[in-house]
Amino acid sequence: xxxxxxxxxxxxxxxxxxxxxxxxxxxxxxxxxxxxxxxxxxxxxxxxxxxxxxxxxxxxxxxxxxxxxxxxxxx
Length: 75
What we know:
Elements: E1 3-8, E2 14-16, E3 26-30, E4 35-39, H1 46-63, E5 68-72
Parallel strand pairs: 4-5
Antiparallel strand pairs: 1-2, 1-3, 3-4
């Protein structure tokens, strides 16, 4: 249990990371609270924003429909 942090690559794949880069799209899966967080920077290309949303929905389908998807404010 715990949290899994993924960085979204330009090819549309999830790459597990320990410390995410602030300039990349990030997906955090919180298994204790059953929440999938997305963090998308303001300067991210539109393509990466859509890929991040699609991957978050796929993670929700895989982990269970009880998970909620929440977006984190960009900093």
